[in-house]
């Protein structure tokens, strides 16, 4: 199967997020979500989040083969380059997609986002990602049903 078409199909699957919050903030919540989000999107906090995502992906690479796409271009990074791609994507611009092709799982990151989105996580990938999230002080949770 064409991997571009498979990635498109995976984007329609149920997903999980690796996030800085344990659950989605409900509409109309009385807290200060937008102020906190803007704080985390600023300089050092966003860089720290990108570093956490890079460490998660590096460790995940120990378990599963990955195809890495920067936008629509497939890249074959080494460890240092993968970390740089994650940091550039999250802190500056673009999108990054990682296909765990043996698991039929897709992970995405985008510019200015405080989470990784994981579409159709296999049982093994989900279990390992949950442990890696916890190790980085992040939360692993199902995306909204819908």
Portion in strands:
15-25%
* Strand segment count: 7
Count of separate structural domains: 1
What oligomeric state do these chains adopt? single chain
The coarse silhouette is: globular
What composes the largest sheet? 7 strands, antiparallel
End-to-end separation in angstroms reads 27 Å
Poorly predicted runs: none
Strand arrangement across the biggest beta sheet? 3-2-4-5-6-1-7
What class, by secondary structure content?
alpha+beta
Task: Give structural notes.
With 146 residues, the protein is an alpha+beta fold. The protein has one domain (15-22, 33-142). 42% of the residues lie in helices and 23% in strands. The protein has 5 helices and 7 strands. It has helices at residues 3-10, 33-41, 43-61, 79-91, 123-135; strands at 15-19, 67-70, 73-75, 95-100, 105-110, 115-119, 139-142. It has a 7-stranded antiparallel sheet with strand order 3-2-4-5-6-1-7, covered by helices on one side. Strand 2 (67-70) and strand 3 form a beta hairpin. Helix 3 packs antiparallel against helix 4 (79-91). The longest helix is centred in the middle third of the chain and has 19 residues, at 43-61. The chain starts with a helix and ends with a strand. The relative contact order is 0.23. The model has no long low-confidence stretch (mean pLDDT 91).
